[in-house]
Design brief:
By secondary structure, the chain is mainly α.
Amino acid sequence: MLRYYYYLILVNMLVSVLIFVPRIMLEHKYSGAIMSIGLGGYSVGYFYTQTAMRWRSFRDRPSPKY
């Protein structure tokens, strides 16, 4: 039963982000909000790939053939 409380909290957090973030971004679009999203996404992606490359199983895994 405890997991349903976690689901409720998770859904409320997701809905709050979906409702309030676009409004805040539109209000602050001329003061650098859009640029900060881009820089934040880039830095999170960079740090994620650097952390993932440290794991041996991630480096030794063969790349997919497309």
